């Protein structure tokens, strides 16, 4: 009932926006800029690494994808780690791991050491992808949660853009120095973030799980829009943790189960029907985020533009910067739309646009590949289709994957549930990034994008049937929402009306 009172209160409550909670989410999301930079910079750095270290295409694929396999391990460890040491210190740990990885890659005299640094950074990626959205979701009000929880994805895009810009400028330096500076410079923000994050408050929901009710209430008063909202959120969190709503003690002792023990069993072995649907929704949305081909475009855009007919290296890198600008601009817009339009509606619009853009891209690249002469119209159509695809991905599937999966799990299952989603995300990211060159060589570059278009159709169908609207709901209402919507075929508005009955 707490969230309804927040929504149905005075108009003042609905229009106020807590700047302190926003600042906390922005600082926590900075870890995602470092990850995004590492992803974006590698797309251009691989051109110079291949030339300098004399490595084969297979080794390039492994270098591109190994980050995600290591992130898989990092994400699975991160869930339990964040339950044990807290959300804030988990972000500090991720920053330190990134720092070590960046130093190793910046030094990298050999392919083996470069791979070691990439793997180290990958573990940090696993931590970062899991913890930043969870922390942002847990400090935010239901009315602004979509905006704040989509900030990590916006920061990833900013990082990717910075990586592309870094490629362009550092690419003009000597071969042996340029790519090492591209990769090693990420150590600087990692060090700064490790210290800056200590100024943030801990997640109030984690504090309640530790029995630290007094500390949790203090944080809620800081990150809520009003004292009434803070008290309502505090009651809901206590109820979700199995604590009497009227308990006034500052510190209570909780059972092991309330503190998060036995979570894996409850998630995977004996889940309730609602938890099973939540898990399927989280795994599905993470699977389709990368199965629809975004990593192929982000990581291999210079190769794709080359196949379309752009030969000059400077123009290739500039066209790639355009991908980063498009991604960042549209994710920025999505952060403002997600709480107004709704998660479900944006997802369906986004995926529909991706289907159309991927079909056009597959056609234009096929025409460009079959022609012995340079087709200006096919090259232009390919560039436009890539930018449209990235735009539609960025207004929906990109940011909403992280918003949705970080908000739907019950309190005690949230960290590990989110870590499962991240693990699936990284497996698919690694699968696409490590196989794309081999796939397009086997079925042509155009054929590979027709394949992604087909997968996007499956994604649209899954989102339509399996994902109810979560806009405006408190985190404590999610389990009830999924209990009432075994087969949600209605619109977001209808789902919200039904859940309020």
From TrEMBL:
Protein keywords: Membrane, Sugar transport, Symport, Transmembrane, Transmembrane helix, Transport
GO cellular component terms listed in the entry, alphabetical order: membrane
UniProt superkingdom: Eukaryota
Bilayer topology: Multi-pass membrane protein
A Pfam family the protein falls into: Sugar_tr
Stored PROSITE patterns: MFS, SUGAR_TRANSPORT_1
TM segment ranges: 20-48, 60-79, 91-109, 115-135, 147-165, 177-198, 316-338, 344-363, 375-404, 442-467
UniProt subcellular location: Membrane
Domain Major facilitator superfamily (MFS) profile positions: 24-471
GO MF term list: carbohydrate:proton symporter activity
Record flagged with keyword Ribonucleoprotein: no
PANTHER family to which the protein is assigned, alphabetical: POLYOL_MONOSACCHARIDE TRANSPORTER 1, SOLUTE CARRIER FAMILY 2, FACILITATED GLUCOSE TRANSPORTER
UniProt record similarity statement: Belongs to the major facilitator superfamily. Sugar transporter (TC 2.A.1.1) family.
Protein name: Major facilitator superfamily (MFS) profile domain-containing protein
Annotated source species: Carpinus fangiana
Record lineage: Eukaryota, Viridiplantae, Streptophyta, Embryophyta, Tracheophyta
């Amino acid at each position: 009932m707490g969230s309804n009172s927040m929504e149905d209160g005075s108009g003042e409550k609905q229009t106020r926006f807590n700047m302190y909670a926003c600042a906390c989410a922005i600082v926590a999301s900075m870890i995602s800029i470092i990850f995004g930079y590492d992803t974006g910079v590698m797309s251009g750095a691989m051109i110079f690494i291949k030339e300098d270290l004399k490595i084969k295409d297979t080794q390039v694929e492994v270098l591109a994808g190994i980050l995600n396999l290591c992130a898989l391990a990092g994400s699975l460890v991160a869930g339990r780690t964040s339950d044990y040491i807290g959300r804030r210190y988990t972000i500090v740990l991720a920053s330190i791991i990134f720092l070590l990885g960046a130093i190793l890659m910046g030094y990298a005299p050999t392919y083996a050491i470069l791979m070691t640094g990439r793997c180290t950074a990958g573990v940090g990626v696993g931590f970062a992808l899991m913890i930043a959205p969870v922390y942002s979701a847990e400090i935010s009000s239901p009315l602004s949660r979509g905006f704040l929880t989509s900030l990590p994805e916006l920061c990833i895009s900013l990082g990717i853009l910075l990586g592309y810009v870094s490629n362009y400028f550092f690419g003009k330096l000597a071969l042996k120095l340029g790519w090492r500076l591209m990769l090693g410079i990420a150590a600087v923000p990692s060090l700064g973030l490790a210290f800056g994050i200590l100024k943030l408050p801990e997640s109030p929901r984690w504090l309640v799980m530790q029995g630290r009710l007094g500390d949790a209430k203090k944080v809620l008063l800081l990150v809520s829009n009003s004292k009434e909202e803070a008290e309502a959120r505090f009651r809901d969190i206590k109820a979700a943790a199995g604590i009497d709503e009227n308990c006034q003690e500052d510190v209570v002792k909780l059972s092991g189960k309330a503190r998060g023990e036995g979570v894996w069993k409850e998630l995977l072995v004996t889940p309730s029907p609602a938890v099973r649907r939540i898990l399927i929704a989280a795994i599905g949305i993470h699977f389709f985020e990368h199965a629809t081909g975004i990593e192929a475009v982000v990581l291999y855009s210079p190769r794709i533009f080359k196949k379309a007919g752009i030969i000059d290296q400077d123009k290739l890198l500039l066209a790639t910067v355009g991908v980063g600008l498009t991604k960042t601009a549209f994710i920025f817009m999505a952060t403002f739309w997600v709480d107004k339009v709704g998660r479900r509606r944006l997802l369906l619009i986004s995926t529909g646009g991706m289907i159309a853009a991927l079909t056009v891209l597959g056609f234009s690249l096929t025409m460009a590949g079959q022609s012995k002469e340079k087709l200006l119209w096919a090259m232009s159509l390919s560039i436009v289709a890539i930018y449209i695809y990235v735009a539609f991905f960025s207004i929906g599937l990109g940011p909403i994957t992280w918003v949705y999966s970080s908000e739907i799990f019950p309190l005690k299952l949230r960290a590990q549930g989110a870590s499962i989603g991240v693990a699936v995300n990284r497996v698919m990211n690694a699968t696409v990034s490590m196989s794309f060159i081999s796939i397009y060589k086997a079925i042509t570059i155009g054929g590979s994008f027709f394949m992604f278009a087909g997968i996007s159709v499956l994604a649209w169908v899954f989102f339509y049937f399996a994902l109810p609207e979560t806009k405006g709901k408190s985190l404590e209402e999610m389990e009830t929402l999924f209990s009432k919507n075994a087969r949600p075929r209605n619109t977001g508005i209808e789902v919200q009306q039904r859940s309020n009955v």
